[in-house]
Amino acid sequence: MSFLPAIPEVLRQFLKRPATNIFPAKYLPPSVTKYLQSVQEGKAAIHPPVETPPNFRGKILYDRDTCIGCKLCIRVCPANAIEFLPETKRVRIYVTQCIFCSQCNDACPVDALHMSDEFLLADEDRYSENMIVE
Amino acid sequence: MVVILGIDPVSVIGGTVAVALFGILAGLVFMGVERKFAAHMQARIGPPIRQPFRDVAKLLSKDSIVPENAIPLLFNMAPVLALASSIVILLYIPLGGFLPVLAGYGDLILVMYLLTVPALALVAGGFASGSPYATVGSQREMVTMMSYELPLAIAVIAIAWRLAAAGIADPFSLATIAGTATGITVWSVAGPLGIIGFLLLLIVLAWVTPAELSRVPCDTPEAETELCGGLLVEYSGRNLALFYLAQGVKTVAMAALAVALFLPWNISWYVALSPNAALVADFAFFLLKLMAVIFFSVSVIRVGMARFRITHVVSIYWGYLGGLGLLGLLCVVLDAYIGGGGML
């Protein structure tokens, strides 16, 4: 057992760069909405988030043309996030309901469902265009 | 100029206001810097340096809740007393090239007594909260106070005794110890053995500082995981803000005491400067020394260690640090006899 082993380590880390990824900015801006506005106007830049790992389960991707309307995804979905549309025999996925478990991807016989890298899904309206995949 | 009882009231009041402002501002800035240090040691970025100012502003804007079981008078008085007594300590400690505001009216022994007053105010506030958590915290704070008193006293006595042995008049005065006017310090008086002794005592004082300030590893009185904040558990709003400010001022006072005792050098002793430039340079260097003390004896220890149990606090401070302090004192005494202090 060494005596006070953490102290040399602490001093070493003091000289290193912090491990924190400064996303979206180094400190919380006084107003987030104003900050986002200035980012859209190009006055400020968002520090990019950490790269997503392989097989990351982000917002779902749906390929309408491949889908055969077999309803398997609806049967496996534990969150009841998928709705069947009888008139077109296609499905509609509610992203706010989705728990990103990826079971529908595994169940799909024609590989029409995929998980993307997109994870910045905050929205004010749970039925907005961005929150529904058809 | 009006002089009452040998004191010039205008300069004393002005000096007190200036020192109070300096203590509060520097306390908050150093707390911000200290959080930044700690964050970088943990490979984080940490909050901006002005975060303590925001915290205090937020606390000041909130209601102060007095619990039903509390004794309101004591409960509300304790934070004021803690802040006021922390500022009073600063009045007796030389700040860079500036002599203490109350130089000549109190010495190191008084400062040692005053250092316990903010802690006693915390204890009184804790007992007055009427919460079992705060009561346990208060008891622990008292035990901590008793624990660090011995090593601190040894370090202080060793310095004053060595100066006295070297034939320097008024060895307990902080202005003498810091050598503000004379440029004579314990390091220049002591021989090689004495320097070893003082280095040991410096280590002891570096470990007394976190106990004095109730920071990790000696934050047993607060112990947020077991006592939910202990002493401060019932405090909120303005009262908590005052305790927060007191903590900042006390950090500055303790670091300034460590600087005055062990790191007393001023730039103006070595570089010829005009009087005004010397004051500015010495003060800037003083702030730098404060930061170094806070870095080593608050941040490094706080991040590198876990909290002691209250029984460990007693055995470590009385046993190990007390022993180390006595060893240092022995070195200093032997040094005085060998090296021929002026009086021996």
Secondary structure: elements and pairs:
The complex is a heterodimer of chains A (134) and B (344).
Chain A: H1 6-15, H2 32-40, E1 60-62, H3 72-76, E2 82-85, E3 90-94, H4 103-107, E4 113-115, E5 132-133
Antiparallel strand pairs in A: 1-4, 2-3, 3-5
Chain B: H1 9-41, H2 51-60, H3 72-91, H4 108-128, H5 132-165, H6 174-178, H7 186-189, H8 192-212, H9 237-262, H10 275-304, H11 310-339
Please tell me about this protein's structure.
The complex is a heterodimer of chains A (134) and B (344). By secondary structure, chain A is an alpha+beta fold. Chain A has 2 domains: 1-49, no CATH class; 51-134, Alpha-Beta Plaits, CATH 3.30.70.3270. Helices cover 22% and strands 13% of the residues of chain A. Chain A contains 4 helices and 5 strands. Chain A has a 3-stranded antiparallel beta sheet, with no helix packed on it. Chain A has a two-stranded antiparallel sheet with strand order 1-4. The longest helix of chain A has 10 residues, at 6-15. Chain A is elongated. The model of chain A has no long low-confidence stretch (mean pLDDT 87). Chain B has helices at residues 9-41, 51-60, 72-91, 108-128, 132-165, 174-178, 186-189, 192-212, 237-262, 275-304, 310-339. Chain B has one domain (9-339). Chain B is globular. In chain B, 68% of the residues lie in helices and 0% in strands. Chain B has 344 residues and is mainly alpha-helical. The longest helix of chain B has 34 residues, at 132-165. Classes of the chains: A alpha+beta (134), B mainly alpha (344). The interface between A and B is medium-sized, with 15 and 15 residues.
